[in-house]
Design brief:
Oligomer: heterodimer
Strand content of chain B: 5-15%
Order of helices and strands of chain B: HHEEEHHEEEHHHHEHEEEHHEEEEH
Strand order of the largest sheet of chain A: 3-4-11
Largest sheet of chain B: 7 strands, mixed
Shape of chain B: globular
Strand content of chain A: 5-15%
Distance between the termini of chain A: 23 Å
Number of strands of chain B: 14
Number of domains of chain B: 1
Distance between the termini of chain B: 14 Å
Largest interface: A-B, 88 and 81 residues
Number of helices of chain B: 12
Helix content of chain A: 40-55%
Chain lengths: ~575, ~475
């Protein structure tokens, strides 16, 4: 079957970006870069810790993978898109909607009231690795239970919902065609509609409303609703260009975790979305809606793992002011802060360098600044004290990346290394090394002394030297984000010299200097781009160094805002081009 | 072996003259005539390991009847002759990634190396890289199959350390990275088991309404199958597996609708369970892991409602494969009446297990272990005293692993896993046994010369007619089924 209408743009010439680079000859040295990125893709490693091997830091292990090399015979083809510099490596795929996308789609199809009364997934964590997600009985049974739940009032409301009186099958057919069109996010085949009308007819034996209810349930449980495809149409060069309808779904689930709105669907129906510039226009249009921006903000918060603040426990003897309510307020500060800085003219670097932040009285008190508002529960833009700057010194970040009773140099360091800058991944520590180092660490050591112990102990230092330094920069903020100058009576030295670091350099007196510096570095914006590209493609193994990410973030700087990033992704071949599925 | 004291007439009398039940009766009669009798698998998990000093029974040799049971094992005394205590089991957790409880849970149920972590989720949440033992046994054993609901997953608490964590919340996986989400809400599990049969049981009106509801669901599933056929024609070859997985699921749900309706009251559940406000997220609690409110009473209530459904499902042969989880290994339940210095202080289970190992903390954790043991023992006693529809005690045909994801919570140790195994006569389990690891090559993935827990699971295959059952990636993860556990 062909689920999509013939797409006018499906086999059109590659976008300008690609055509330009297609003329570029393959430079020596590029092959190695490509190989590294390929093996990284194949490696499918998780963020933070992932088990490579005790030798796995510096990414050294990723080189020289013979199997990957063997699969790359075609990368010198000068006619290939990207001229060999960035061939499509993401394969055609069938992607099962995760529960968040499934439930959000139901909400948009049937209205928010339909969702009520059943636990919906929360948005504090989002799934970045969707490619391996497969259906089983538990998944489909849950979807069936949702279908029954959201259609519970439909028998009574059918006339109102469908605009039909129940005597006119043509009217019902037209309603179901429209409903399935939205749900499947593509035109509906006559054959499909016939089948759906059969379902309707069965229910209609009892009543018109029962018939509508049953047909709507059938749409909700169908695999067409529960999956989106990235198959594309074949091009002359053997790669596949996603159809306009596939692109509409990709963009929509990236931006909203839900199905395309009517205008985006119309742009797919007309074939207009085949043009990258139309995709950009659609992204701009969608981003005018605050709930769409809010959804993307939540995606970034999830990429930075800040949703984990919910559930954080702090020792009340040490942190009596910490509570569930305060944790929510910390998160709220960061939400409001992102809202204010992600989309404006000052660019993404302002996330790291802003000198004000929205706080209520409790947060201002925690941070140690006077609260200028009249209502203590109100969030007011407050100037930061000199020791604070931007996102990195917000209590939400500092409290999330701490333990119950102390800071965590390791958690904070891994955060900078992973979610913030997308530096090379760090393997899990070997068991015996953990036991050995734990025996050495004295209970009354300061965090810096502990870090120094790790730095002077093999094999710990192989990896901890990569990220402990980042964590030490934050030592002047305690486990709930209060500023401090001493730990266990010892003055804190938060300065770090990265000159012996493998993949990062710089010398910083404190996190303020660090934040100002990395705000101007390409890694930060590339890393944000990486997160959103991964979210859009479900291809979690894409690293910041992957050519897809480099290509999409080409031209982006700290002055770019998140809309610029999303527009770049909308244009990017990583979103729209696929390699043939390699059947097992 | 006991002959079935099952009477068709009395059975029909007890459920009303329900047309739909005839098929079930025919099936049971076929079993009487020599077809394999059902076997049942019920994994019961409790979190946070044990306190060794109060766990091990005292004695020597392998005859458990000569041992003095420990405080934690005492509730199991009436079941002693159907119980095996294991000493020297190690979880093959080496070569995997993830936190103590997270990794422990995945390794406990899959026995496969789990080297990769979910992004986010606290950085300690490993992917399961294979199907879980319950699902693998189900796939390979005919005596677990041929029931309306292939398997059931139940859990009594959803809270984990981060909102999105997967590994601590799941005991069942249909395949790699494919968790089977448990029911938290007993009413939802009830509806899955009994469908929409109205109160009043198998009256003809109710049966008619049920038949209509089922016909509706079938047409919904039938549409999914037709959709799958169309999708198959355009799917790249490598993607068809995902459609197969979807189809398998749809067909399984379809079979559930073909089953003879069971009257929940006849199966032993008079009323649908109450709706419980299942806790979703951790509310930060205060000092020294003290919660302002206790929630062990709710915890117990959810557990009892779930277990009543398990008993009913076994009784009426609705399912034969169940995993029952009390809570994620990072248990957030706060227990009242357990803190030795002050019974009115409600301490949270898991976080307290990471307090300094004082006598009070040890005593607190011991009391919780006793609490869980009492719940399990009471339920197993019920299974021993309740007859299924073939007229024999449920426990006779049921194998019940009693497991936890770490051995010593303070250190997250995986050595000397405090696991038990229960089973009635028909399972072939040689109960009344104290098994200690002495010979056999230990797994290289376990520490300290331990015998891999995979060997425990591999032995369980014998209860289900699968003597060559294998669990684990390769021989670094297992040695072979533990000998002498089954007759």
């Amino acid at each position: 079957m062909s689920p999509a209408a013939p797409s006018p743009g499906a086999t059109s010439a590659p976008p300008d970006l690609l055509r330009r680079s297609a003329r570029r000859p393959l430079r020596p040295g590029r092959r190695r870069t490509l190989l590294r990125a390929t093996t990284e893709l194949l490696g499918a490693l998780a963020w933070g810790f992932a088990l490579l091997s005790p030798l796995g830091c510096h990414g050294a292990l990723l080189e020289g993978d013979e199997a990957a090399e063997g699969s790359r015979d075609d990368d010198d083809d000068p006619n290939a898109p990207g001229g060999g510099s960035c061939l499509p490596r993401i394969e055609q795929a069938l992607i099962l909607l995760d529960e968040l996308a499934f439930v959000s789609s139901l909400r948009d199809l049937l209205g928010p009231a339909a969702i009520e009364g059943r636990l919906a997934p929360d948005v504090y964590t989002k799934t970045f690795a969707r490619k391996g997600y497969v259906a089983n009985t538990s998944v489909v049974s849950t979807r069936l239970e949702w279908a029954l739940h959201v259609t519970r009032d439909l028998p009574q409301e059918a006339a109102e919902v469908t605009g039909c009186d129940g005597t006119d099958a043509t009217c019902v057919r037209a309603y179901l065609e429209d409903f399935a069109h939205r749900a499947f996010r593509r035109p509906v085949l006559a054959e499909e509609l016939d089948d759906l009308m059969e379902v309707y007819a069965q229910g209609a034996e009892s009543s018109f409303g029962d018939g509508v209810q049953l047909a709507v349930q059938a749409v909700i449980v169908s695999p067409s609703f529960n999956h989106r495809t990235e198959y594309g149409s074949p091009r002359d060069d053997g790669f596949y260009e996603l159809t306009p309808h596939e692109l509409a779904s990709s963009l929509s689930y990236l931006l909203t975790d839900s199905l395309p709105d009517p205008e985006l669907l119309a742009a797919a129906d007309s074939g207009a979305l085949a043009d990258p510039e139309e995709r950009v226009l659609q992204v701009r249009r969608l981003l005018e809606r605050s709930e769409v921006r809010g959804s993307v903000e939540k995606t970034l918060l999830a990429a930075w793992t800040l949703g984990n603040l919910f559930g954080k426990v702090k020792d009340p003897g040490l942190y009596p002011e910490f509570s569930a309510a305060l944790a929510s307020q910390m998160y709220r500060e960061t939400e409001l802060f992102l809202e204010a800085h992600l989309w404006g003219d000052e660019g993404l670097s302002s996330l790291l360098t802003a000198r004000t932040s929205p706080m209520n009285a409790a947060l201002a008190d925690l941070v140690g600044v006077p609260f200028p508002g009249s209502d203590p529960t109100e969030f007011v833009e407050v100037p930061l004290p000199p020791e604070r700057i931007g996102l990195l010194t917000q209590p939400s970040v500092l409290a999330t990346l701490s333990r119950t009773d102390s800071t965590s140099v390791v958690a904070r360091g891994l955060f900078v290394n992973g979610p913030l800058l997308c530096l090379p991944k760090i393997p899990s520590p070997p068991e015996d090394a953990i036991a050995e180092i734990e025996a050495q660490l004295e209970h009354d050591m300061t965090e810096r002394e502990r870090a120094e112990a790790r730095a002077s102990t093999s094999p710990c230092n192989n990896c901890h030297n990569q990220f402990d330094g980042f964590g030490l920069l934050f030592e002047t903020y305690d486990a709930i984000g209060r500023y401090r100058t001493t730990e266990k009576g010892v003055p804190i030295d938060a300065s770090v010299d990265f000159s012996s670091h493998a993949t990062f350099d710089g010398q910083y007196a404190d996190v303020v200097e660090f934040a100002e510096d990395i705000a101007e570095r390409p890694e930060f914006v590339q890393c944000v781009t990486r997160h959103l590209l991964v979210y859009g493609t479900g291809e979690e193994s894409l690293g910041r160094d992957a050519c897809e990410v480099q290509q999409a973030s080409d031209g982006l700087t700290g002055q770019s805002n998140l809309a610029d990033v999303l527009e770049a992704i909308a244009r990017s071949p990583a979103l729209s081009l696929r390699k043939e599925d390699s059947a097992p | 072996m006991k002959t079935y004291s099952f009477s068709r007439r009395s059975f029909i009398g007890s459920v009303g003259a329900a047309v739909g039940l005839i098929g079930l009766l025919d099936r049971l009669e076929a079993q009487e005539e020599g077809n394999p009798a059902p076997r049942r698998f019920l994994m019961i998990q409790r979190p946070v390991g044990t306190i060794f000093a109060n766990w091990w029974p005292t004695g020597t040799g392998s005859d458990l009847s000569t041992y003095e049971l420990s405080r934690i094992l005492t509730p199991f005394a009436p079941l002693r002759d159907r119980m095996v205590v294991f000493r020297g089991l190690g979880l093959p957790a080496g070569g995997s990634a993830g936190g103590g409880h997270e990794r422990g849970t995945v390794l406990m149920v899959t026995g496969r190396r789990a080297p990769q972590l979910y992004p986010g989720n606290g950085g300690d949440d490993p992917y399961a890289e294979g199907a879980s033992v319950d699902q693998l046994l189900l796939q390979s054993s005919s005596v677990l199959q041929d029931v309306p609901i292939q398997s059931l997953q139940l859990s009594c608490d959803r809270r984990a350390d981060t909102p999105g964590e997967v590994s601590p919340r799941h005991l069942s996986y249909s395949g790699p990275r494919a968790p089977m989400t448990p029911y938290y809400q007993p009413l939802e599990a009830y509806e899955r088991l009994f469908g929409t049969l109205m109160p009043g049981g198998t009256t003809s009106d109710n049966l008619e309404a049920l038949a209509r509801a089922r016909a509706g669901k079938k047409s919904v599933l039938d549409f999914a199958l037709r959709d799958l056929e169309r999708m198959r024609t355009i799917a790249p070859a490598g993607q068809r597996e995902k459609l197969d997985a979807y189809e398998d699921a749809v067909r399984e749900l379809e079979r559930e609708l073909d089953a003879d309706p069971r009257d929940p009251a006849f199966c032993g559940v008079d009323q649908p369970p109450d709706v419980i406000q299942v806790s979703q997220r951790v509310d930060p609690y205060g000092g020294a892991n003290v919660s302002p409110e206790r929630d062990d009473e709710k915890h117990r209530r959810i557990g009892e409602l779930h277990l009543a459904l398990v008993k009913a499902a076994f009784r009426c042969d609705l399912t034969r494969t169940v995993t029952f989880q009390w809570s994620p290994g990072t248990n957030h339940v706060s227990f009242g009446g357990m803190w030795p210095p002050d019974a009115a202080v409600f301490k949270v289970h898991h976080t307290t297990s990471h307090n300094p190992e004082t006598d009070d903390v040890r005593e607190f954790l011991t009391r919780i272990e006793v609490w869980y043991a009492e719940r399990a023992a009471t339920f197993l006693q019920e299974l021993a005293e309740t007859e299924d529809i073939t007229g024999r005690p449920i426990l006779d045909t049921t194998l019940v692993p009693y497991v936890t994801e770490v051995s010593h919570g303070f250190s997250h140790s995986w050595n000397d896993m405090p696991w038990l195994l229960f089973g009635g006569a028909e399972t072939g389990l040689r109960g009344g046994q104290y098994w200690a690891h002495s010979g056999g090559r230990p797994s290289s993935a376990t520490g300290n010369n331990m015998r891999s827990t995979n060997d425990y699971w591999m032995a369980c295959g014998q209860a289900f007619g699968v003597p060559d059952f294998v669990l684990g990636d390769d021989e670094t993860m297992y040695f072979g089924p533990i000998d002498g556990i089954f007759a």
